[in-house]
């Protein structure tokens, strides 16, 4: 069995404040700096002290879905009330989606109703990422999630159980920051040894970077760092 996506790790200047914001937007449960879906399905989001300031757009962002125009407006209003702000990233006046930034400047979209690609994906329709076709193939194998889109160097994967899609937009690529503020935390398969799973990920194209008290540090084929958690770090 492959690794499981345990959490999205988000750098934050004020981790508890940002956890409170996203728990409010998503309607998730919060335990300090960790927020989780109420039904227990899918990944968590863990907010940690930042490694460096945000200077360019993130290489990942959420596409949040809506069911009706009124629902989209309500989601935007709730986000703004909680501390988000509208931003212009060149989307143009005719864009049907709304682009926002959370209290620490992390970009996210609230997508217009009727988007067929995100139909049935839930409120977090997609974790939209900047990245190559190769990295999409890597993560499909790493997580055991099938490819649900593979065209013009754009890829997307989705858990066999459904839910949020992870997408990669292909070229042209955005400027890379020194530190990635959004990264993945994986846990090994049940009964699997972390070192053996790390070796499998390296065989798929990852690079082993080292280790810390939380787990094994790796980078995917595009150079995006991620962590394979061990022991109590995955609780």
TrEMBL record:
Residues 10-111, 130-228 form the Glyoxalase-like domain. Signal peptide: none annotated. Coiled coil: none annotated. Pfam families: Glyoxalase_6 (PF18029). This is Glyoxalase-like domain-containing protein. InterPro entries: Glyas_Bleomycin-R_OHBP_Dase, Glyoxalase_6. It comes from the Bacteria. CDD domains: VOC. The lineage of its organism: Bacteria, Bacillati, Actinomycetota, Actinomycetes, Micromonosporales. It comes from Actinoplanes italicus. SUPFAM superfamilies: Glyoxalase/Bleomycin resistance protein/Dihydroxybiphenyl dioxygenase (SSF54593).
């Amino acid at each position: 069995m492959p690794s499981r996506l345990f959490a999205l790790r988000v750098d934050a200047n004020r981790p508890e404040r940002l956890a409170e914001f996203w728990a409010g937007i998503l309607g998730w449960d919060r335990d300090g700096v960790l927020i989780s879906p109420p039904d227990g399905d899918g990944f968590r989001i863990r907010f940690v002290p930042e490694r460096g300031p945000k200077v360019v757009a993130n290489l990942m962002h959420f596409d949040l879905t809506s069911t009706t125009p009124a629902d989209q407006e309500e989601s935007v209003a709730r986000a703004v009330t909680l501390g988000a702000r509208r931003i212009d990233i060149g989307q143009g006046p005719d864009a049907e989606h709304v682009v926002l930034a959370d209290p620490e400047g992390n970009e996210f979209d609230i997508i217009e109703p009727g988007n067929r690609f995100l139909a049935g994906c839930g409120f977090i329709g997609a974790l939209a990422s900047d990245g190559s076709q190769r990295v999409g193939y890597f993560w499909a194998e790493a997580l055991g999630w099938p490819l649900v889109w593979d065209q013009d160097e754009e890829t997307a994967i989705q858990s066999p159980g459904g839910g949020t899609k992870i997408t990669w937009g292909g070229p042209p690529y955005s400027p890379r920051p020194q530190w990635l503020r959004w990264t993945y935390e994986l846990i090994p398969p049940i009964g699997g040894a972390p070192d053996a799973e790390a070796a499998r990920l390296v065989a798929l194209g990852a690079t082993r970077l080292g280790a810390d008290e939380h787990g094994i540090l790796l980078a995917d084929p595009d150079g995006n760092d991620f962590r394979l958690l061990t022991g109590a770090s995955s609780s």
